[in-house]
Design a protein that fits this description.
Order of helices and strands: EEEEHHEEHEHHHH
Radius of gyration: 17 Å
Distance between the termini: 38 Å
Largest sheet: 3 strands, antiparallel
Number of domains: 1
Number of helices: 7
Number of strands: 7
Shape: globular
Helix content: 25-40%
Structural class: alpha+beta
Length: 179
């Protein structure tokens, strides 16, 4: 995504039900919004270089390699300041994001990827996502060649991204010191 020059990530976004609940193609557990999830975390945001809602959404889709128009319609979500929604935004998520957006005077719209990942849990031998299944998956990754990539992705978000999977991961897989 093209970022507005001089803009930096801010960990002052809305509190949303996010979790490391998606297994990406490269094996990483990635953060997604999980409607109905009981735990909410502070999210981070950054200003786009694009000032037009549609152009910013297309820019995000390009960054995420979401190229087909039907996929873009389904996977790029957003809400602008007049309440216009893009994509199939969950009602409870829309309410939280809209409240946050209405409190901001420096942001005209929000745009995010609405990814799902439930099918890859089955592909990896699990019935569905759960914290316990995520920890089992990570334990298997502890011996894989992708281990560093998988582990780094969970450590990368700011501390405000405080989820049950991340807390348990940090207890089970503390950083190894080189000395």
């Amino acid at each position: 995504m093209k970022v507005r020059p001089g803009s930096e990530w801010s960990a002052t976004g809305p509190k949303l039900p996010v979790e490391f609940a998606r297994i990406a193609e490269n094996g990483r557990l990635t953060l997604i919004i999980v409607p109905g999830y009981e735990i909410v975390s502070r999210t981070s945001w950054i200003l786009s270089a694009e000032t037009d809602f549609e152009k910013a959404a297309l820019n995000l889709a390009d960054r995420e390699n979401i190229t087909s128009p039907p996929d873009r319609q389904r996977r790029i979500h957003g809400i602008d300041s007049d309440g216009t929604q893009r994509g199939p935004v969950n009602a409870s998520v829309a309410a939280v994001v809209s409240r946050w957006l209405n409190e901001r005077h420096d942001v005209d719209a929000t745009i995010w990827t609405g990814l799902e990942g439930w099918d890859r849990w089955k592909d990896n031998g699990f019935d569905s996502f759960s914290v316990a299944n995520a920890l089992d998956y990570l334990a298997k990754a502890d011996t894989s060649t992708n281990r560093e990539i998988i582990f780094e992705y969970i450590r990368k978000p700011p501390p405000e991204t405080d989820t049950p999977v991340r807390r348990a991961f940090e207890r089970l897989f503390p950083r190894r010191s080189d000395s």
